[in-house]
């Protein structure tokens, strides 16, 4: 398939970059969204020029212009609301094993603060039917079901090969974007071919993640994936929702706070799309898929054009790759199992998952 190049520094051209679909097409390239937002209280875009009053009006009195220069009549200052077109870069943050109900329980105060201006799924986002770290992360970043990406084991041996097909790192890298992946488990190398990640680092423990991530933000990036393993590690050792599990989530949340602060310091926060999610939840000391608590994941989207709301639709982890690609204006593969969460941007959700889209 062909890819449209989008420069790193430029605003992604969502509207013009993909072939225009006909109105009957339900899958494939991005449809142009012209419908009004579903959530009427906060329209995502404002075109400032339309509402501007005439700037100069004829004065009724004859004032010799040679001796008097009137103050220019400026239109009232209008700051256009940020729109999806303002998204310049994206960060996907995965807290390994984070249950949505642990966010308040911990509490993860920085994440809770972020959620106030986010579109998020309270309890209606879930991972694939094999809720293990490698397969579900592969679905998260590729947008494909396990049978398509082929990451069927929770370990990585080189002979297995990398996650098959296009993933969001392929798409971004092919578009000339700078891609960064910082993970806390070495096996996650399997998720993206080395040639599609400009930076790949493994950092063990929350402080090490912070030391690795912050300089990468300062150096500039277009797509970054950050993986915190603390919740999963403590969950296996002490139990999900245990004091130790919640404590390490707070530590990860502190790093999140510093990531947000660094984005602000660098003047990048207002143009960065942030998606916080997880690969799976857990119960007792495992997450092998016995309970809904194993499948349920947080799904929190924040950034330009996002309409803060509780999302009502069914979200699967494949939708993360689809939504991030959509946010960055990247062309979506036609056979993708994930669907962009258009609703998060206040747009009509033209397609939804009628049922679980995967075999496994
Ligand atoms: Zn685990």
Can you characterise this structure?
With 360 residues, the protein is of the alpha/beta class. The protein has one domain: Alkaline Phosphatase, subunit A. It is 26% helix and 11% strand. The protein has an 8-stranded mixed beta sheet, sandwiched between helices. Helix 3 runs parallel beside helix 10 (318-327) and helix 7 runs antiparallel to helix 8. The protein is globular, with a radius of gyration of 22 Å. The model is unreliable at 1-66 (pLDDT under 50). The site of zinc ion has 5 residues, from helix 7.
Highlighted features:
360 residues; alpha/beta; Alkaline Phosphatase, subunit A; two-stranded parallel ribbon; 11% strand; globular; disordered N terminus
Give the H and E element order.
EHHEEHHHEEHEHHEHEEEH
Strand content: 5-15%
Overall tally of domains: 1
**What overall geometry do the principal axes of the alpha carbons give?**
globular
Relevant CATH superfamily: Alkaline Phosphatase, subunit A
Proportion of residues in helical segments: 25-40%
CA radius of gyration is 22 Å
Largest sheet: 8 strands, mixed
């Amino acid at each position: 398939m062909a890819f449209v190049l989008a420069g790193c520094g430029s605003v992604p051209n969502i509207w013009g970059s993909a072939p225009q679909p006909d109105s009957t097409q339900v899958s494939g390239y991005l449809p142009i969204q012209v419908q009004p937002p579903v959530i009427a209280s906060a329209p995502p875009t404002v075109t400032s020029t339309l509402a501007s009053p005439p700037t100069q009006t004829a004065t009724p009195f004859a004032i010799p212009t040679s001796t008097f220069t009137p103050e220019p009549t400026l239109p009232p200052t209008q700051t256009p609301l940020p729109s999806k077109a303002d998204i310049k870069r994206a960060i996907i943050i995965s807290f390994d094993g984070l249950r949505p109900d642990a966010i308040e329980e911990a509490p993860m105060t920085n994440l809770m603060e972020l959620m106030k201006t986010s579109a998020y799924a309270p309890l209606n986002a879930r991972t694939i039917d094999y809720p293990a770290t490698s397969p579900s992360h592969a679905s998260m970043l590729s947008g494909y079901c396990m049978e398509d990406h082929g990451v069927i084991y929770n370990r990585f041996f080189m002979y297995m090969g990398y996650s098959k097909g296009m993933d969001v790192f392929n798409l971004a890298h092919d578009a000339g974007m700078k891609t960064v992946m910082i993970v806390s488990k070495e096996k996650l190398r399997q998720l993206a071919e080395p040639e599609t990640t400009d930076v790949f680092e493994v950092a063990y423990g929350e402080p090490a993640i912070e030391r690795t991530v912050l300089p990468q933000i300062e150096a500039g990036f277009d797509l970054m994936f950050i993986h915190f393993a603390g919740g999963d590690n403590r969950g296996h050792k002490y139990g999900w929702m245990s004091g130790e599990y919640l404590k390490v989530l707070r530590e990860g949340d502190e790093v999140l706070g510093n990531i947000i602060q660094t984005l602000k310091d660098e003047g990048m926060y207002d143009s960065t799309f942030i998606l916080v999610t997880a690969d799976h939840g857990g119960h007792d000391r495992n997450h092998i898929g016995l309970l809904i608590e194993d499948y349920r994941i947080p799904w929190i989207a924040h950034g330009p054009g996002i309409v803060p709301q509780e999302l009502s639709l069914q979200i699967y982890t494949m939708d993360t790759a689809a939504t991030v690609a959509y946010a960055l204006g990247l062309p979506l593969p036609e056979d993708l199992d994930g669907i962009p969460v258009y609703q998060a941007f206040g747009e009509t959700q033209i397609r939804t998952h009628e049922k679980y889209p995967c075999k496994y």
